[in-house]
Amino acid sequence: MSPIIHCVRHAQGVHNLSQANHHLPDPELTPLGEEQARALGTRFPELGNIELILSSPLRRTIQTALLAFPSRDKNLQVIAWPELQEASDLVCDTGRDLVEIKAEFEDLPVDFTLVEPGWHIKQGKWAPVADRLLERAQLVRLWLSQRSEKEIVVVSHGCFLHFLTGDWVNAVNSHATDWGNAEVRSFAFAHGEDEVPALCETTESRKRRGLGPVGLTKEQQLKLQQRTLQIWIEWGVILA
């Protein structure tokens, strides 16, 4: 049986305070962001049963994961996974060299085994190109669907979470995401006729957000995806 995936957008980062801060490289959490991260476990008790924590290797996502799950299990580390990094190539959405980030979190329970050299160079499979991003999201879903854990936390970024979850509702706005800082949404896997794993938000998660039990159909989401990607390309959020 495939696991439940609890997707978390990182808590408030310094770059979230203003567009002027988008030039800051790999920004850290604000004091409010640190409070948001620490409160995640209290606000979302369903996170109490997680067996695997995955995080984008950017500073703000790792910080969010560490503050949200502070050594509650000595054997449960935060696993940094470059596939979860943000979609755009803005300075604030670009990570750092592996040696540098390992040095910053050296004494903390973070596993960098999956982070390959050059992960932060936005080229090739990491390029901010629509097709590459869709491929990366599909790779993540396939990998997650094959895990043996029952509940997994994924700490990522607002824009990429739309690619990952396949939910494009309200993604066209000034923030290029419908996800709030430190927001949690929970998903189960669904397999269509093509046997490609897809994520479907759980009824409980939709209820937490004040939504009805049934979301858009796959066809409706695909149309919304096409429209969103076209607008994001026009805005320069991603590339064609």
Automatic annotation (TrEMBL):
GO cellular component entries: cytoplasm
GO terms assigned for molecular function: phosphatase activity
A Pfam family per the record: His_Phos_1
Domain of life: Eukaryota
CDD domains from the UniProt entry: HP_PGM_like
UniProt xrefs under Gene3D superfamilies: Phosphoglycerate mutase-like (3.40.50.1240)
Species whose genome carries this gene: Penicillium flavigenum
Protein known as: Uncharacterized protein
InterPro entries hit by this protein: His_Pase_superF_clade-1, His_PPase_superfam, PGM_Phosphatase
